[in-house]
Structure formats: C-alpha cells, structure tokens
Design brief:
Layout lengths: L2 E9 L2 E10 L4 E6 L8 H11 L3 E10 L7 E3 L1 H18 L7 H5 L5 E3 L6 H45 L2 H22 L7 H15 L2 H18 L8 H21 L3 H22 L3
Parallel strand pairs: 3-4
Antiparallel strand pairs: 1-2, 2-4, 5-6
C-alpha cells in the first residue's frame, strides 16, 4: 500500500525532521536516507519500521539541521592545502598557468569528510519520538486508503454475485437448445426412424452431467461470501495474502463455469465476472 507520514521535533538547537513514504510492493523493501551517525542504530530503525509498516517499498528520511551549520560533513583542511600546493607546483612547472583547482580538489577522496562522532543518546531518544509521530500519520494515511480499497472490493464481489444470480434463467434454455442440436444432428446422420429413444435420452443425460454448473455456482457463492467475511474481520492484522488465495479460488470457479457454459448469454456473464475479479486482484496485491 502507498503511505506517507512526516513529523518534526527538536533536540537542543537541532531540528529533527522525519519523513516516511511507501509504494506498493509484494514484499518489504526498506531504504534509508539518514545521517552517517545514525548508521549505528540502523538495525533498531529496521525493527521499528517492520513492526509498523508491513509490505511495500518503504523509504525513511531523517534530516538533522543545526543553526551552526551541518556538522555531519566538513572540509579536511590540511589535506586540501596539501593537494593545492602540489597541484599548483605542477602547473607552474609545466607552464600551464593558473587553473581552477578547487573543483578538482574537492572531488578527491577524503577531502570532504564525514563526521566520525557517535550518535548522542539524547538526540536518538528525541528522534525516536519524532519517528513515532511520523509512523502514526503514516498508519492513518494507510487506514484511509484501506477503507477506500475495502469498499471497492465489496462492490466488485457483490457485482460478481449479481452476475452469478443471472446465470440460472439461461440454464433451462441451454438444456432445450442442447437437446434440439443433438436431435437435429442425429436425424441428419442416422435418420429419424433409426434413432433409439432410450439411447438418445441416455446421451442427453451424459451431456447434461458434463455441462452441469450447480457445484461451481455453489462454490463460487461460498468463496464470495468468505471473501467478504475476511474483508470485514477486524481481528485480522494482515489480510492481503488470505484474500489473494480466496480470489484465486474464485477465479478457478469462474473459469470452470465459463468452460461448461455452452451458452453465449452465460459466457457474457462470465466475462463480466472475470473483469471484476481482475480489478479485485489488483487491489488485493496492494493490501497488507
């Protein structure tokens, strides 16, 4: 599921800003944009995020600003001077004249260095409080999106059940059409007088058993009801995988119903059910 949450706080003269974003994904993929000093608590950050943010491409950004300047990065002045003297000496020796050396020097490794200071425990405690506030907003965002997804899935499951209820009126006509078609073929190839009435009825019963969709209709109806039951169960913390399995079972019954349809009107209803199911699957893939 997508999600967003941010919060700000302070520690001493430092301003702490935390931002959490997530995009849809089947798995949990955590990415960090944090100051170097926070690498020591990366494992704890991962634990906090995985407890609150199941599934998704999740990006955490922690920004620490100080009015005295960014203490995380600094210029290695002695190393800069050393490179500058040596490069300037080479330029003069080769007669190349003055060149802009600053841009070239700062690209050299270790000239711009990161702070090696460890994370202040007080600052980390303040950051965790800000992180908790951002996670609350993040969860609220997801809950709002989840409500919309739940309503959409309910609507589409109900649409499948409505399509299913329209199948029965066409079943009687289907039997009559099948009987007429087989009888016509028999009269054409065997002759009307040569048809054995008892054998003909046996053949009709055989084909009727092959195209009977009673079991598929019952199972499909039960799967749809179970889908709605799981969808509305507030005791379940995660529903995505379970709903995905149920939607697969719904798909199997719809496909079997279509293969046995033997009627254009029923096929049209099956196509409508498949269309609704595909949209449900898209939503379920993004459900936690």
């Amino acid at each position: 599921m997508t999600g967003f949450g941010n919060a700000s706080g302070s520690h001493g003269n430092k301003k702490i800003t935390v931002e959490i974003r997530s995009l849809n994904s089947k798995y949990t993929d955590l990415r960090y944009k944090i100051p170097p000093a926070y690498r020591d608590v990366e494992a704890e950050l991962r634990k906090i995020l995985t407890e609150h943010c199941q599934r998704g491409k999740i990006e955490l950004s922690i920004d620490i600003n100080s009015p005295d300047g960014d203490d995380e990065y600094g210029l290695n002045l002695e190393l800069y001077k050393k490179y500058y003297r040596e490069l300037k000496s080479i330029n003069e020796e080769l007669g190349q004249g003055d060149m802009e050396l600053t841009e070239a020097i700062i690209r050299i490794p270790n000239v711009i260095s990161t702070s090696n200071e460890s994370l202040d425990p007080g600052e980390w405690a303040s950051t965790k409080e800000v992180l908790k506030e951002a996670l609350k907003k993040f969860s609220s965002f997801r809950e709002t999106e989840g409500e919309a997804m739940m309503l959409d899935c309910k609507h589409r499951i109900q649409s499948i059940m409505d399509h299913l209820s329209k199948v029965e009126p066409f079943e009687t006509n289907r039997v009559a059409k099948l009987r007429q078609r087989i009888q016509k073929n028999m009269e054409e190839y065997v002759g009307k007088d040569n048809i054995d009435a008892n054998r003909f009825e046996q053949e009709i019963l055989y084909y009727l058993e092959k195209i009977d969709v009673t079991e598929e209709k019952v199972r499909l109806s039960q799967h749809c009801k179970y889908f709605l039951e799981v969808l509305g169960d507030n005791k379940l913390k995660t529903k995505g995988k379970k709903l995905n399995f149920i939607s697969q079972e719904i798909g199997r019954e719809i496909n079997t119903l279509g293969s046995k349809a033997n009627d254009s009107n029923i096929q049209q209803l099956v196509v409508g059910m498949k269309d609704e199911l595909e949209k449900i699957k898209e939503q379920v893939l993004n459900t936690i």
